[in-house]
Automatic annotation (TrEMBL):
One of its GO terms (cellular component) is membrane. Keywords: Membrane, Transmembrane, Transmembrane helix, Transport. It holds the Pfam family MFS_1. InterPro entries: MFS, MFS_Riboflavin_Transporter, MFS_trans_sf. The chain crosses the membrane at residues 12-36, 85-101, 107-126, 147-167, 173-193, 205-226, 264-282, 294-313, 325-343. It is found in: Membrane. This is Major facilitator superfamily protein. Gene3D superfamilies: MFS general substrate transporter like domains. Its main location: membrane. GO terms for molecular function: transmembrane transporter activity. It is a multi-pass membrane protein.
Length: 344
């Protein structure tokens, strides 16, 4: 119990902290919104899938049951280490559950992380704001609990909108246009650029470069990125692709000093371009199931927009700073795509 003369500012901050804890705890009620975004591989207990209502609908029930199991341990831990460390442990469990769930490949793995570990963390943290707030304001325990639990009640309002924004196809559209512009532009203009370089000015050589890049980059890349996205998931592969693409764009002019490195750089760019074309439709069908085709139809407009944007942007940038500026801007677009991809 704090001393009577202790400033109540700390008490108000303690209650505010309790609101924030319950804001996170209440995110479990976002499941009704999130379940519609579950990929097909996580909708049923069987990896082969199933029919009828999705088994993933049970996730909220498992989360609440786990919260129920964790709640008795909250006051026990609090008596041993205090409310701050107890809440911190519960928060770490919630964060770990969400992090592990992001890489789950089966519904069982997802439930153990998102529902069980996350739910136990909620149970551990849940009563800490009541205990702390009640000690600061012993005569207003009801008011303290009411204020704290506004966080729980309003949580889904904030997180539903945030999650929908993060999962919405509009974000994927931006990722495509930022990532695809570089590759499509190189595919259409590598020869125009090369003909201005004295050591590359050879029709026969540049025809060979285009042919090898088409086969070893555009064709082979589609099989490679499609297979890798099945094995490692869309996010990891897309981050790798955009990092490789940005790096290549930054040194593309330097690579043009030699024929071999220019040929390799052009092949890498078409290799990355092909990855965009194969990974996004696969991701749509994994994420949106039967609606994947309709979603990808919308997303494909980003590829058309990227094809138009490349030449227009290149012309404007060449006038201002030459190929150095143009390729640096394309590298920056790839890095922006990487940043957006890290939030998927």
């Amino acid at each position: 119990m704090p001393e009577p003369a202790a400033p109540l500012t700390k008490g108000y901050l303690a209650v505010l902290g309790g609101v924030m804890i319950h804001l996170v705890c209440g995110s479990l009620y976002c499941w009704g919104n999130l379940v519609t975004y579950m990929p097909a591989s996580l909708k049923y207990w069987s990896p082969e899938g199933g029919e009828g209502p999705s088994d993933a609908g049970l996730v909220l029930a498992f989360t609440l049951l786990s919260q129920m199991c964790g709640m008795p341990f909250g006051p026990l831990f609090e008596s041993l280490v205090g409310p701050r460390l107890t809440a911190l442990l519960g928060g770490a469990m919630m964060a770990s559950g969400l992090w592990l769930a992001s890489s789950a490949t089966t519904l069982t793995q997802f439930v153990l992380s998102y529902a069980v570990l996350f739910g136990l963390g909620i149970g551990l943290s849940y009563q800490m704001p009541f205990i702390t707030g009640g000690r600061w304001f012993p005569g207003k325990k009801g008011s303290v609990q009411g204020v704290v639990m506004t966080g729980l009640g309003s949580s889904a309002f904030f997180f539903n909108m945030l999650c929908t924004h993060l999962l919405n196809p509009q974000k994927l559209w931006l990722m495509i246009i930022m990532s695809a512009t570089s590759g499509i532009n190189i595919a259409s203009s590598y020869k125009t650029f090369a003909l201005k370089q004295p050591n590359l000015n050879s029709e026969a050589f540049l025809a060979l470069v285009g042919s090898i890049a088409a086969l070893g980059g555009n064709a082979a890349g589609r099989f490679f990125w499609g297979t890798m996205s099945d094995k490692f998931g869309f996010r990891r592969c897309f981050l790798t692709l955009t990092a490789l693409q940005a790096s290549t764009m930054l040194v593309y002019r330097k690579l043009a000093e030699r024929r071999l490195t220019f040929a390799l750089g052009t092949q890498v760019m078409l290799f990355c371009m092909s990855g965009n074309f194969v990974m996004f439709p696969a991701h749509c069908f994994r994420t949106f199931g039967a609606n994947g085709a309709a979603v990808y139809s919308f997303l494909f407009t980003a590829f058309g927009s990227a094809a138009l944007l490349g030449p227009v942007l290149t012309k404007a940038l060449l006038a201002k700073g030459g190929y150095a500026l143009a390729y640096n801007v394309f590298a920056a677009l790839s890095l922006l795509a990487l940043l957006l991809g890290s939030l998927v």
